[in-house]
Design goal:
Layout: H1 9-17, H2 21-36, H3 44-58, H4 63-74, H5 81-88, H6 92-101, H7 107-116, H8 119-126, H9 133-141, H10 145-153, H11 161-173
Helix pairs in contact: 2-3, 2-4, 4-6, 5-6, 6-8, 7-8, 7-9, 8-10
Length: 176
């Protein structure tokens, strides 16, 4: 990976136009690394361009590349929100790091993911630190025992009164 000062916009475009899988993978890795470089941050125009390129490329690259990008962006507070949301809605193998750790995702996005994606996505969200009452209510509303059990083991989740009352009532019916 070259430092930002050695990567030109022309070089990024050349990599983007190359259809070989290796070049596409290299482009994804180059762009995500540029986002991570705190000392040499791209300006807003460059970030918008890189977001656009990554957004298009992530659909075309292999799963292991998307996983690597997801791992890199999961802990980055300045990660592009559109890309984080795109990765959070990908296959669970790719979405998990983002769902567990990304501070870029907000409650409305998490709630939508719980409602629209599968059980595995909801399980990953249930293990997240700092869950709000609204997100907890949505997780409880899935009715999935494994998701609810995971949520109850999460000491960082803030259950609403309504969710607590529901879970107490359900505890009489469900042994777990």
């Amino acid at each position: 990976m070259l430092p930002r000062s050695k990567v030109s916009i022309d070089a990024l475009f050349a990599m983007a136009q190359d259809k070989r899988a290796g070049e596409r993978s290299r482009l994804c890795e180059t762009i995500s690394a540029l986002f991570m470089n705190e000392a040499d941050r791209p300006n807003e125009r460059e970030r918008a361009l890189m977001r656009s390129i990554l957004d298009r490329l992530l659909h075309d690259v292999e799963m292991h590349v998307r996983q690597r990008v997801s791992e890199q962006l999961a802990d980055l507070p300045g990660a592009p929100p559109e890309l984080v949301e795109l990765l959070a809605n990908d296959r669970i193998e790719i979405a998990r790091p983002i769902l567990l750790r990304s501070k870029v995702l907000r409650d409305p996005q998490l709630i939508e993911i719980i409602r629209q994606r599968g059980r595995e996505h909801a399980l990953a969200v249930s293990m997240r630190a700092g869950l709000s009452p609204d997100v907890c209510d949505t997780l409880v509303a899935t009715g999935d025992e494994d998701v609810i059990h995971s949520l109850l083991r999460n000491g960082d989740a803030e259950l609403s009164r309504l969710a607590t009352e529901y879970l107490v009532a359900e505890s009489e019916r469900v042994g777990r």
